[in-house]
C-alpha cells in the first residue's frame, strides 16, 4: 500500500457537538432491483459522519433500504409498476418534484445526493431537472442522474449563476462519455472535456478511475471560467466492483453536508474512499473485496486523516 498524505485533515469534533452540527443529508435514488445502490450511499454518509441521513426512494423499495441499517431514515415516493419513481402522485401536489420540494426533510437538507440506482424513467427525469435548478443547495449527481442530464441535454442550457452553483458530478468514464461524447478509452480527451464543463458551469467534476481526477473552478464566482485539477493518490483495482461508486456518492454528499466546500469535499472524499479501498484490499485481497468491505473500512481510513 502506498504511503500518501491527505489533501486536508478530516474535520474534528468539539466535545459539546450534537448531530445537528454534522449535517442533514438526503440521498435520492434506488429502484426495484437496485435498492442496494442508494442504501450503500446512505450507509456511507452515516459512516462519513453525517448526523441525519434520509434515503428518498420509490415506495416499493422502502423496507429493503430501511432494512440495511437502522440509522437510515426513509422517505417513500410513489413508484411505477416496475419500481422506479413515478411521474405523478395522483394527489395534491400532483407532480413528483412538487412532493420532493414540499417535504420538510428535503427542505432542511444541507446536501442532496442523487442518482444511484434510480433508473432513467420519467419520474427520475423530473426529480433531476428540479434538483439541477435548486441553486442554493449543495448537490451531488451520480450514475443515472448523470445519464439523465446527458440524455436530456440539460447542460446545453445557459449556465447557472456561478455564485450559487455548488454542484459535484461524479461520473465514471462511461458516464462522462455519455455527457461529453468523448470515448472512455481517451483519458486525456475526457479530462479536457471535463475541464470544459467546469469552466462553463463552475461545477466540480470527479472523473473516477485509477487514478481519480478532481476538477473544479479556482474561484466559482469569477465570470471567466477557471479550472484546477487534483489527482488522487489512493485506491486500487480491487475497487472495480459493483457499488464502489455508490459508496463515494454518500461520502461526498456527507462532507458537503458537514460544511466543506465542493473542492475540499471532493478531494477529501476521494482520498478517504481510496484509502478505505486500500485497507479493504490489504485485509481481503483485491479480487475478494466488495463494496461491503469498502464501507467497513471508511472508519479506519478516517482515523488516519483526522485533524
Ligand atoms: N447494488 C446495486 O443496486 C448497484 C446498482 N448500480 C446502479 O446500476 C446503474 C448502472 O450503472 P453501471 O455503472 O453499472 O452501468 P453503466 O452502463 O453506467 O457503466 C458501465 C459501462 O461504463 C463504462 N465504464 C465504466 N467505468 C469505466 C472505466 N473505468 N473505464 C472505462 N469504461 C468504463 C464501460 O463501458 C461499462 O460497460 C446505476 O444506476 C448504478 O447506480 C451500480 O452502482 C452497481 C451496484
Ligand atoms: N482500477 C481502479 N483503481 C482505482 N480505483 C478504481 C479502479 N476501478 C474502480 N475504481 C474506483 O471504484 C469506483 C467505481 O465507481 P462506479 O463505476 O461508479 O461504481 P458503481 O456504480 O458500481 O458503484 C470509483 O470511485 C473508482 O475510482
Ligand atoms: Mg456508479
General description of the model:
This protein is an alpha/beta fold. The protein has a single domain, classed as 3-Layer(aba) Sandwich (UDP-N-acetylmuramoyl-L-alanine:D-glutamate ligase), CATH 3.40.1190. Helices cover 41% and strands 13% of the residues. The chain has 12 helices and 9 strands. The chain has a 9-stranded mixed beta sheet with strand order 3-2-1-4-5-6-7-8-9, sandwiched between helices. Strand 5, helix 6 and strand 6 (167-169) form a beta-alpha-beta unit. Helix 1 (35-47) packs parallel to helix 2. The longest helix has 23 residues, at 262-284. The protein is globular, with a radius of gyration of 18 Å. The two termini are 22 Å apart. The mean pLDDT is 94. The site of adenosine-5'-diphosphate has 17 residues, from helix 9.
- Counting helices, strands and paired strands, the structural category is alpha/beta
Please report the first level of CATH classification, the CATH class: Alpha Beta
Helical residue percent?
Answer: 40-55%
- Strand order across the largest sheet: 3-2-1-4-5-6-7-8-9
What is the fold named in CATH at topology level? UDP-N-acetylmuramoyl-L-alanine:D-glutamate ligase
Could you give the count of β-strands?
A: 9
Mean pLDDT: 94
Oligomer designation: single chain
Q: How much of the sequence is in beta strands? A: 5-15%
Bound molecules: ligand NAX, adenosine-5'-diphosphate, magnesium ion
Shape: globular
Order of helices and strands: EHEHEHHEHEHEHHEEEHHHH
Helix tally equals 12
**CATH architecture tag:** 3-Layer(aba) Sandwich
The gyration radius over C-alpha positions equals 18 Å
Low-confidence stretches: none
The CATH homologous superfamily is termed Ribokinase
Task: Tell me the domain tally.
Answer: 1
Amino acid at each position: 500500500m502506498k504511503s500518501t498524505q491527505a489533501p486536508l485533515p478530516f474535520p474534528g469534533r468539539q466535545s459539546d457537538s450534537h448531530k445537528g452540527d454534522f449535517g442533514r443529508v438526503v440521498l435520492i435514488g434506488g429502484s426495484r432491483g437496485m435498492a442496494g445502490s442508494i442504501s450503500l450511499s446512505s450507509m456511507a454518509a452515516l459512516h462519513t459522519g453525517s448526523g441525519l441521513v434520509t434515503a428518498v426512494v420509490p415506495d416499493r423499495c422502502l423496507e429493503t433500504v430501511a432494512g440495511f441499517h437502522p440509522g437510515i431514515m426513509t422517505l417513500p415516493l410513489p413508484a411505477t409498476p416496475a419500481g422506479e419513481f413515478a411521474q405523478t402522485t395522483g394527489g395534491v401536489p400532483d407532480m413528483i418534484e412538487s412532493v420532493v420540494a414540499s417535504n420538510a426533510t428535503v427542505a432542511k437538507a444541507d446536501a442532496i445526493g442523487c442518482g444511484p440506482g434510480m433508473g432513467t424513467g420519467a419520474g427520475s427525469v423530473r426529480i433531476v431537472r428540479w434538483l439541477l435548478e435548486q441553486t442554493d443547495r449543495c448537490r451531488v449527481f451520480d450514475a443515472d442522474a448523470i445519464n439523465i442530464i446527458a440524455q436530456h441535454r440539460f447542460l446545453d442550457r445557459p449556465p447557472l449563476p456561478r455564485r450559487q452553483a455548488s454542484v459535484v458530478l461524479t461520473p465514471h468514464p462511461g458516464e462522462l462519455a455519455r455527457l461529453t461524447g468523448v470515448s472512455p478509452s481517451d483519458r486525456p480527451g475526457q479530462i479536457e472535456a471535463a475541464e470544459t464543463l467546469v469552466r462553463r458551469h463552475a461545477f466540480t467534476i470527479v472523473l473516477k478511475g485509477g487514478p481519480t481526477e478532481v476538477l473544479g473552478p479556482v474561484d466559482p464566482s469569477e465570470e471567466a471560467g477557471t479550472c484546477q485539477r487534483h489527482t488522487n493518490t489512493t485506491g486500487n483495482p480491487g475497487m472495480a466492483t459493483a457499488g464502489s461508486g455508490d459508496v463515494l456518492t454518500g461520502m461526498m454528499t456527507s462532507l458537503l453536508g458537514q460544511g466543506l466546500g465542493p473542492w475540499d469535499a471532493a478531494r477529501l472524499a476521494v482520498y478517504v474512499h481510496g484509502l478505505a479501498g486500500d485497507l479493504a484490499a490489504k485485509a481481503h485481497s483485491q479480487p475478494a473485496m466488495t463494496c461491503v468491505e469498502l464501507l467497513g473500512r471508511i472508519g479506519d481510513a478516517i482515523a488516519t486523516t483526522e485533524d
